[in-house]
Design brief:
The complex is a heterodimer of chains A (107) and B (120). Helix content of chain A is 0%, strand content 50%. Chain A has 107 residues and is an all-beta fold. In chain A, a hairpin with a 3-residue loop joins strand 5 and strand 6. Chain A starts with a strand and ends with a strand. In chain A, 33% of the residues are buried. Chain B has 120 residues and is mainly β. In chain B, strands 2, 4, 5, 6, 9, 10 and 11 form a 7-stranded mixed β-sheet that branches. In chain B, strands 1-3-8-7 form a 4-stranded antiparallel β-sheet, with no helix packed on it. Chain B is globular. Chain B starts with a strand and ends with a strand. Classes of the chains: A mainly beta (107), B mainly beta (120). Chains A and B meet through strand 5 and strand 10 of A and strand 5 and strand 10 of B.
């Protein structure tokens, strides 16, 4: 199975901060990497697909980059609605696997 | 707009069975792979199973292989998960999910989930 390791597992930040979350795959997954946001009690919502493609309706402050094994989700200027949990997911092979999540909390 | 609504969750004893359903709308259901993903509340996401557009090809996580069966009814636009011989560790919120394209590996849109609790 492809292991997805996210870091950090949590972070504290303020409105306006630039936030970076990383995701490392245990093997080369090309660009088959997606990012989701999940608020408490809600279903995950896709933010970025295939490494760097912004889902329709998602603010442009979200961006993704990387390839192979190392990927990054960046929020350029954190907004109050962004305090949430973020997951990466590889769509390269089954079993599809997810990172353990990064909880973004208010400082 | 893609709309997925799960149902069928509840409390079941260890060793029991439960069938989950996922009603789909807003897209041509019969053209797309579909997935089940589960999440222990407060924990991470775990992929469970997938089924191709015509229901012929299925794949399972090792943890559920031989106990769970995924199926679909394209006329009713409904996805199913038959869960047998349930264990305490199957307790989770179960989400159905669909891709934006025709790949069997991508997950983009999610339902709200249905909670399954396995306990005596």
């Amino acid at each position: 199975d492809i292991q997805m390791t996210q870091s950090p597992s949590s972070l504290s930040a303020s409105v306006g901060d630039r936030v970076t979350i990383t995701c490392r795959a245990s093997r080369n997954i090309r660009s088959d990497l997606n990012w989701f946001q999940q608020r408490p009690g809600e279903a995950p919502k896709v933010l970025i697909y295939t490494t760097s493609n912004l889902e329709s309706g998602v603010p442009s402050r979200f961006s993704g980059s990387g390839s192979g094994t190392d990927f990054t989700l960046t929020i350029s200027s954190l907004q109050p609605e962004d305090f949430s949990t973020y997951f990466c997911q590889q769509s390269h092979l089954t079993p599809l696997t997810f990172g353990q999540g990064t909880k973004v909390e208010m400082k | 707009e893609v709309h997925l609504v799960e149902s069928g969750g509840g409390l079941v004893q260890p060793g029991g069975s439960l069938r989950l359903s996922c009603a789909a709308s807003g897209f041509t259901f019969s053209n797309f792979w579909m997935h089940w993903v589960r999440q222990v509340p407060g924990k991470g996401l775990v992929w469970v199973s997938r089924i191709n557009s015509d229901g012929i090809a299925t794949t399972y996580a090792d943890s559920v292989k031989g106990r769970f069966i995924i199926s679909r009814d394209n006329v009713k636009r409904t996805l199913y998960l038959q869960m047998n011989n349930l264990r305490a560790e199957d307790t989770a919120v179960y989400f159905c999910a669909s891709p934006r394209g025709f790949s069997g590996y991508t997950i983009d849109y999610w339902g709200q989930g249905t909670l399954v609790t396995v306990s005596s």
